[in-house]
């Protein structure tokens, strides 16, 4: 009788070990699947980051070009304003001379 109980206990222990191994295998498979999903997401994020950084560089370069063009326009405006004042002064002098004649 004790031998039968011992065999039954051993079988129950083996069954529990097999169930534990099965659960561990299932968990491992789930973890590996999740790892693959996360690696895919990571790859997509890295691609998007690369695209965004490239676009950022393009925009920064364009901004520098626009700022340089703006500085050129500001210099042209200042020169035209200076020239306008010179012409106004010259016209005022011509009018004054005409009045004297």
Write a short abstract of this structure:
With 101 residues, the chain is mainly α. Helices cover 98% and strands 0% of the residues. The model has no long low-confidence stretch (mean pLDDT 94).
Question: Any descriptors?
Answer:
101 residues; mainly alpha; 98% helix; rod-shaped
Description:
It is a single chain. The protein is built from 1 helix and no strands. It has 101 residues and is mainly alpha-helical. The radius of gyration is 43 Å and the shape is rod-shaped. The chain starts with a helix and ends with a helix. The model has no long low-confidence stretch (mean pLDDT 94).
Bin the strand percentage.
under 5%
What's the order of the H and E elements? Answer: H
Portion in helices:
over 70%
Q: Low-confidence spans: pLDDT under 50, at least 5 residues?
A: none
Radius of gyration based on Cα positions: 43 Å
Terminal CA distance: 146 Å
E-strand count: 0
Mean pLDDT value: 94
| Overall geometry | rod-shaped
Number of helices: 1
How does the major sheet shape up?
none
Q: Give the helix/strand class.
A: mainly alpha
Summarize the SSE layout with pairings.
Blueprint: H1 2-100
């Amino acid at each position: 009788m004790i031998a039968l109980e011992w065999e039954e206990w051993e079988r129950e222990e083996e069954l529990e070990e097999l169930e534990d191994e099965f659960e561990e295998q299932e968990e491992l498979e789930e973890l590996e699947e999740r790892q693959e999903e996360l690696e895919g997401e990571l790859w997509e994020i890295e691609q998007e980051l690369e695209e965004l950084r490239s676009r950022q560089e393009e925009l920064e370069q364009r901004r520098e070009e626009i700022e340089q063009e703006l500085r050129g326009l500001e210099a042209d405006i200042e020169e035209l304003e200076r020239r306008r004042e010179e012409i106004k002064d010259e016209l005022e002098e011509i009018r004054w001379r005409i009045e004297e004649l």
